Amino acid sequence: MSAGIIIGIILLLLIIILIVAFVMMYNNLVKARNFVENAWAQIDVQLKRRSDLIPNLVETVKGYAGHEKQLLENVTVARSAVMKATTPHEKAEASNMLSGTLKSLFAVAENYPQLKANENFRDLQNQLTETENKIAYTRQFYNDTVTKYNNTIQTIPTNIVAKIGGFEKKELFEAGEEEKVVPKVSFS
């Protein structure tokens, strides 16, 4: 064989290897993006579950604490904001607002022993607490998945394939400023 044929075969093999590597990296990026979208869908499922529970909770509280009208309206407005939000940032902000109003609602419920003793209220409170725990877990899973995805699209050599394929950095689901404040505890 002549040197020209050997060089041609080597170049052809290199091109094939590069094409295969490109296809494998692209497919891995698609899988990573799909994992991010799935993780986001899991957050959405839990936020929807929480939103579905809230009307029942509000109706239950109305029966016992009807004069807490402003608080009940705040819960309803916060729920509506979660349902209307579309981006991770908007969902995070609205979800944090809803969590805050629910905390206020449960704090007010402490002033109504009959409400606290109501089986329906306790059941809804337990379901919401369980859902809040699931939301926290799915947020963490989402953020882990997004971090892995973002690392993949920003590191060499997959960053080249990501740029060519139009893969973009995803937002993390972050806690709101009100959730970062350390609560004051007083036993006086």
From TrEMBL:
The chain crosses the membrane at residues 6-26. GO terms for cellular component: membrane. It holds the Pfam family LemA. It comes from the Archaea. Gene3D superfamilies: LemA-like domain (1.20.1440.20). The keyword Membrane applies. This is Protein LemA.
